[in-house]
Structure formats: C-alpha cells, structure tokens
C-alpha cells in the first residue's frame, strides 16, 4: 500500500495518535504524518503510506492555511485558550475594522517570531515544552517566517467588548506559530491576546474538501475500497515541474546518477522525472558540483 491519505484530524487527538490508529486500520507499519497539529486543533493532516513516506518532508515544508479565532483579552502560558492566564485586561475595548485590518497588513510578509515555550522546537537537544513542564525558562531562537495572507473574515465594522474576538485566515510558511501570531496581533492593538480556536484548512496541495476522517478510512478499508482515500505520490509533487524521462537518460535516472543540470532547475528547486506520469526520481541542483544535479528522492518501483 503506497500513497497519501488526506486525513481530517479531529480535536482531542495528537498527530501521533492518528498514525498509531492508521497503522492498525491499514495493517501496515510504514505510516508517517507530515507536521504536528496540537491536540486542540482540527484540520488537514496528510498521512504518507509506504513509499510515500519518502516525501513526507516535502509535505511538512509546504505552506499551510489556517482559520483562527483571535481573543483580545488575556495572554496565556501556551498562547492558546488551554493555558493558564499570564496577563488579563478586562476593560471595555473598541476597535474599528480599519484598525484591525491595518494591524493584519503590518504582520503580512516576512516577520520575526519567537516560538512559545510550549512548543516542540528543540534547544540544546531538548524540546521547549519539556523545559516548560519542568518550570524552566530558556532562551528561545527568534526566526523569520512568511505570512503570505492575513485576512479578517468577520463582516463587522466595529468590534467592542471586554473580550473582543474575530476570525482571520492565515496562509503561511513552514514554522509559523499561529498562537504566537495571535499574541503579536494583540500587541499591535495594545492588549494581551491569545489564539482561542484554530482549524487547518489546507496543507500544501491538500485541502479540507478532499479529506477523510479516521472513521471513514476504517469504513473504506473494511469495504475493500481504500484506494478511494489513497492519493498517489504524484499528487503531492504536482507543484514541481515534471519531465518525462527520455531513452538517453533512462538508465542513469533509474540508477540515481549525478547528471548535467536540467534548465528547469534554474527557476525551481526541484524537478520530478518520471515515466508515463509516474514519478521515478526528484532531482535537485548538486550542492558542490556547479552545473550538475543529483537525486533527492527515488521511487525505484517505477520501471
């Protein structure tokens, strides 16, 4: 069994829980997820099965789309609704639509983020949440992320109350913490804030519309129709240019040899080589040999 199942992860489960359950449902050990979703978050979580696990990192690195509810009221230890309150402001607040949209525009593009203490980012070989649970505060690395789109989804022209909430859509790069973005939005508005709710609506080329729940996957497996949920590896590679292998390089590519670089690699970081639209290898520019390319991933079962 090889391919990618676009799973809809339900709230209350970890990404590892999903992998564990799918191994039992599909009767296979070669199952891997493509980026952690917190237990309190639901949404798109592509799962790689069999040889598709080779490209799990591509899916992890792909851009994501989220819909989040921002609460302008208090900050928490985890930067979401599940954490303990750190700072709270209960006074009446009033924001115009224009004010909020101005803040969202200021946080669009390349921004700096410091990961929350309750996160899986590693410092000195140890995950930040392990330090946090031990009551230890450590210096966290600030990093650059890209917010491609940050839009206000609510129609209201005025937002008033002690706890002002509004929904946003975020299209962002790998490594973006929406929890931290919620805090940054609050800071720009002059108040403590946290992420109240979060749903991931897309991950790379996978969206909510083509997802299956664990229950649906189990039903398809039992009925012998699991192919209805399995998407081919090529689906996840469709954002990269595809080149049909010609006879003169057929053997070399199947053997994973270093070759003169393809012209497409001047504009793209990866090129998919295949036969009859089935991926055989993904090539990248050679890191130490200018003008040459090397395989990054191989799919040897394609003849």
How is the secondary structure organized here?
Blueprint lengths: L2 E7 L5 H12 L4 E3 L8 E8 L6 H6 L2 E9 L1 E3 L8 E4 L4 E4 H10 L2 E5 L8 E2 L2 E2 H6 L9 E10 L5 E4 L2 E9 L5 H12 L3 E11 L2 E2 L6 H10 L9 H4 L5 E3 L5 H5 L4 E2 L10 E5 L2 E8 L6 E7 L5
Total domain modules: 3
Helix percentage range: 10-25%
Structural class: alpha+beta
Tell me the overall shape.
globular
Description:
This protein is of the alpha+beta class. The chain folds into 3 domains: 3-62 and 204-235, Pseudouridine synthase, CATH 3.30.2350.10; 64-202, Pseudouridine synthase (2-Layer Sandwich), CATH 3.30.2350.10; 241-298, Archaeosine Trna-guanine Transglycosylase, Chain: A, domain 4. The protein is 21% helix and 36% strand. It has helices spanning 15-26, 56-61, 97-106, 128-133, 178-189, 214-223, 233-236, 250-254; strands at 3-9, 31-33, 42-49, 64-72, 74-76, 85-88, 93-96, 109-113, 122-123, 126-127, 143-152, 158-161, 164-172, 193-203, 206-207, 242-244, 259-260, 271-275, 278-285, 292-298. Strands 1, 2, 3, 4, 8, 11, 13, 14 and 15 form a 9-stranded mixed β-sheet that branches. Strands 16-18-19-20-17 form a 5-stranded mixed β-sheet. Helix 1 packs parallel to helix 6. The mean pLDDT is 92.
